Amino acid sequence: MITAEKLINAQKDELPELSKSLEADDVGLLVEWLSDKDDKLRYPSFLTLQHRAKDSDELYRYWDLFREKLKSANSYQRDIGLIMLASNVKWDKDGRFDDCFDDFCALLNDEKPITVRQCIQAFAQIVPYKPELSMKIAKKLMAVDIMTARETMRKLFLLDIINILLLIRKTHRTDEIEKYILDALAGGILDSKSKKVIQAAL
Questions:
Q1: For residues 124 and 89, is the Cβ–Cβ distance under 8 A?
Q2: pTM of the model
Q3: How far apart are CA 150 and CA 72, in angstroms?
């Protein structure tokens, strides 16, 4: 049986192995701790459950709870919700992600830049398991207005978006995606190093 003390004292590199030894009751307890106000307990609970989701579908039954977090007033809870949903899309045999797609994508316009980035990056876990949504995802990403973000965040947002578009492009190449990437390469947001990396991936 997992205890709060054991989890708080565990080293980060011990969490993957710890996740494999969890019992059913432990998983439920860690899900409860995702809402704890103490980050020393909440954060390792979150990481451990992420590792668990890689090998087990048992967190899929908490889908609705994770979905509710997307609309939380607390940005940490929104982050947890979107990442836990993305981590469990591989187990989504019922097509539940399709139903919450708009709620998920709403976080692309979140007030917190870190939440926007987490949302964009999370599509890397979604695209391989939801190829039928690839073009909807691409259109949502290409519609993000990067220029409304703080200047220091624009390059990061753009790189995150392009990385997902490059992933989509492997199976769904369209003129829209090509134009978006070429315009980014021709624009002034990316530095020369970033442009070279992208060009090498094309």
A1: no
A2: 0.94
A3: 23
Residue 95 backbone zone (phi > 0: left; psi -120 to 50: alpha; other: beta) = left
The rounded distance, in Å, linking the Cα atoms of 3 and 78 is 25
In a domain, 119, yes or no: yes
Structurally, the chain folds into a number of domains equal to: 1
| Structure token pair of residue 75 | 């940005």
Which position has the higher pLDDT, 24 or 99? Answer: 99
- Sequence-distant (6+) residues with CB within 8 A of 136 are 101
Range of the structural domain that residue 192 is part of: 57-201
Let me know how long the chain is: 202
Query: Which tokens sit at 172?
Result: 């769904």
Tens digits of residue pLDDT in 21-36: 998 899 999 999 999 9
pLDDT tens figures, 171-185: 999 999 999 999 999
Asked if the structure places residue 189 within a domain, the reply is yes
Residue 19: inside a domain, yes or no?
Answer: no
> Minimal CA–CA distance to 81: which of 93, 91, 72?
72
For residue 87, the domain's CATH number is 1.25.10.10
Determine the straight-line distance between the first and last CA of the chain, rounded to whole angstroms.
49
Closest CA to 43 of 53, 52, 33, 51: 33
* Chain centroid offset of residue 31 CA: 18
Indicate whether 112 belongs to any domain. yes
